[in-house]
Protein: Peptide deformylase
Amino acid sequence: MALRNIRTVEDEVLRKKCRPVEEVNDKIRDLLKDMADTMYDTGNGAGLAAPQVGILKRAIVIDMGDGLINLVNPEIIEQKGSQEVIEGCLSIPGKWGKVIRPYEVRVKALNEKGEEVVIKGKKEMAKCLCHEIDHLDGILFTDKVTEYIKE
Structure:
C-alpha cells in the first residue's frame, strides 16, 4: 500500500487538463492501486482522480459502496436528465455546495486490464462519475456551484 498526498485547491496541477493513458500497464495499475488506497485511507472519499495525487493522466477510481471501479481514459458518452446534488471534494476540504449534474450517465473507459467497459450510473453514481471526470479536465466542483452549504 502506497499512500499518496492529496493535492489541495491551491495546487495548480488541479487546473490542468490530463493526458490520455497510452497503455494500461503495471505502472498504471500501481497508480490505480495507490489512488484507491489513498481514497480509502481518507475514510470519507467516494472517488479520486489522478490529478488529485499530482499525476496528469486520465485515470479515476470510484467506490460508492458496491466495490472498487478503476477507469482509465473515461469519457461520458451519454447523459440524461438533471439533478441538484450536494458535493464536496477531498482536494477542497471543508467546502460543500449545490451543483447541477446529469441524473444518469453512460461512461466508456478502459478497466485495469485494458479492456473496454461501459459503466451506467444514476443519481449518486452519476454525480461521482461526472465529478471525477471533471477533475481530468481541470474543472473543480466549485466552478459549478449554484449555492454553498454552510456547515
